[in-house]
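Case study.
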Amino acid sequence: MLLIPCPFCGARAQTEFVFERSVDSVVALDATPEAAMAALFTRTNPRGPDDEIWRHTYGCRAWMIVTRHRVTHVISAVRPVGPVALP
Amino acid sequence: MTGPGRDSSDATIGFRFDDKPYRARPGDTLAAALLANGVGLVGRSFKYHRPRGIMTAGVEEPNALVTVGEGGRREPNTRATDVFVYEGLVATSQNRWPSLSFDVGAVFGMASPLLSAGFYYKTFFGPAKRWMIYEALIRKAAGLGTAPTQADPDRFSQRAAFCDLLVVGAGPAGLSAAADAAEAGKRVILVEQDSILGASLRRDPQALDAAWIDTTAARITAAGGRILTRTTASGYWEHDLVTLTQRLAEPGQIPVNGTAQRLWHVRAGQVILATGSIERPLAFDHNDRPGVMLSQAVRTYLQRFGVLPGKRVVIATNNDDAYQTAAALKAAGAQIVAILDARPAPAGTGSGFAVHNNAVPLATKGARHCLKQVTGLVDGQTRRWDADLIAVSGGFTPVVHLHMQAGGALDWDAAAQAFVPTASRQNVTTIGGAANPAPIAASAPVSHPKKSFVDFQNDVTLADIDLAWAEGYRSVEHLKRYTTLGMATDQGKLSNMAALSRLAEKQGVAIPEIGLTTFRPPYTPVTMGLLAGAGARDAGAHIRRLALYDVHAARGPIWQPLGLWVRPRAYPTGGETLAQAALREARAVRTNVGMTDVSTLAKFEVSGPDAAAFLEIICATTIGKLAVGRGRYTFMLREDGFVFDDGTVWRIGDNRYLLTSSTGGADRMAAHISYVRHYLCPHLRVSAVNVQEHHAAIAVAGPQAKTVLAALIGVEPPRHMSTIAAMIADVPVIVAAASYSGERAFEIYVEATRAPPVWAACDQHVTAHGGCPYGMEAMEFLRIEKGHLVVGGEIDGRLSPHDLGLDRMLNKAGGYVGVQGLARPALAAPGRRQLVGLEAVEGSIPEGSMLVTHDGAPVQGHVTAAAFRIMTGGSIALGQLAGGFARHGEDLVATSPTRGQRARVRVVAPHFYDPAGDRYRD
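After joint prediction, the assembly is written out as follows.
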């Protein structure tokens, strides 16, 4: 079970979070049909660090991007996303 | 048999094994107590039913598996070496019939070529008849203990903890490390699977005595450290999370405070593994019978438990450690008949014993309960010795399980012929014997591989490994699955290295080139109840309680689980059946008026200047043109273009909307809305709040619903698909006119805590008009007859808006989630499964049945929901049918062969009742 450093709450157990998807499989609202289908069905699945979207659903409910190594699980960066993170 | 310091007057604890009473000393394991009572035969083996005794003194025991306890506390496959005797313990041997000493199944042992490696696979590929014959035999004969059939009466608890340092194993290395860290100010947890601390020091008290153990333990606790005995670190997970399984009661024992075991989740800053090593057996013919014991186990029984396991002993070794066993046995008065040392001279010289160098055991002979003779090969010559015990030592396998579960790497230690832990990507280090196994001689050849057991628990011999090799199995992973080696409850703790070395020998490569199979948690078996913990029994599922639960309960309804909710299915009166009650309720709605609790609907309040724009992203229909006070049906798509939910959107203010969607999809929709809002459109000025449980909701439906509503709110009720704010019973409510039933209907939204008086007021007026409450069963009848969709039924995630006839409602401007996926031409193809109505021509349409043109023809669709015409009878259904839109009027067969049900049906439009919708419009 991962220990995820929530930008608002600090390190919390994975059971408090819900995984949404990796950033590379996000379908932008204005994507072309081709780009949307590529995001959904042909993913990069890198062997190494990857940006993943998680939500601290059973905590502060904030959304964040967690950079997690897919083999070692090392979390190298976490940053909040959503309205709170807008400049 | 007794040993030094073993006085029978100490044996104060009474226990039973196979219905015979015995006595044990406090601190005895069941294995030690059985040996002290001269019980050599403890169980029968898995496949061949061979007589087996006690081979080890630890959790690695493969042979002495017994069932402990009775009733709901019965624990099968308990290692006799890992249960401490308590007063009244009841143990039973396993896998024998009719009795342990006379076992019919042992015939399998005589016919053992029948059950060679890959037997099951080969039989599967053979003629089916062969399998049918074998199956009945095997099902009866194979297997270990049987699972208990009664509920476990005890409690299993869970606990979370944090520490700076977790030390696993309380031998000399672990104790020292824990004491030093605790005194350096670290928060320390030390865990030991045994009931007492000391580990190897209890086997070899000469090294450091019990006083040192007590002193060191006192240092740890004095510095604030925590020591947990009878606690196994069973799993090492990501980010230094270690799960511990703690026994508060022995298997089968009544717990003192009701809690039998505790599962710990420990997040550690650092982990030290001082897990020691496990001694390896040697492979020789009949190396599995009672009287064959690991050398260190012999010392443990002798020097910890005071039990002498044999009087005339042969020692077979490839290392120096076994000489300590010889010395201890001699000191206890046993006769060392021979020492067979696989190493050439001068190994063993100076031990004070007559040592045979270049000597290996070849075979044993004996009776069912005991060993009688050992045959060995000394410098190429066969020799025989009469003996009642052979103590074997094939070297030491470091316990690297947790290190490997943590994602660690291993190095090959050629001198010890063992894998030792090296780097880890987690914060874990291994110390003590687990990191430094003793050197040994390389393994020696064996003459009779057929009865040379490698995996004792799964009855896998060297011959099986050779056979697998001969049949082309090269990878260790394939070997494991083909022979079942290492797949028993001991997970190959004794067998894996022996198998690897045999495979390496066959391939002519070094062992490291063979590789290892994956180490997976748990280290030792874990009781299922412990994983369930407090979630067992009624606490197994979360319950979401309706705000109006008590109001419904007072009527004694038939309840229906719906996700985590439970809702009234029907309100029977006067001995009605479910079907009778539901029909009465549905008819009340069709002819008069009814009311029902629809609080479980998903509800979202969407507000802000960009609320409409946001809803036009979530929903695939237009929203922006909706006037204040109006509502409309809407539906949502997945990104791949398929419909995943539907509901209603109400504009309840200038920039305020109430969106409802299905009960079953509520949590999924909440996550989706949050994702879209926060990730895809953070810039929008909108708030989307989940108000599912903030509002309770009551639907009032029927020809008299408008009259009832007018009386309730004192003003003109809203027209169809309109909404107003009003008061009922002095409580503010939102009244929204929408119909699921097909009748004139209103949904009343009210703050959940204030719902009961609103329900009571509705109830009073509905009853006064001759109506009644209705449950989910009547609601299902009503909506099927009307042809309304349900998520999970007609909307099953596989149909596009085109397939459901919803395409005309799509927002032409696009911009909604799923528009790109829906653009794929295949989603609008004419031959796809499409929503249809079905009317029985003959028989009653079975729910869930298949649609075919005639019996035996390919499936063209299925029935999603079946009911009957509420007022006139007659079986009707909704379904999905390939190209269904163009097939109205066609006759088909709806068949459910598994239930033996069948009807002839006609394809019709999916609206059986008031297709024009005249009944709910003014």
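Observations recorded in class. The first strand of chain A starts at residue 3 and ends at 6. Residues 33-41 of chain A form the longest helix (9 residues). We will return to this complex in the next lecture.
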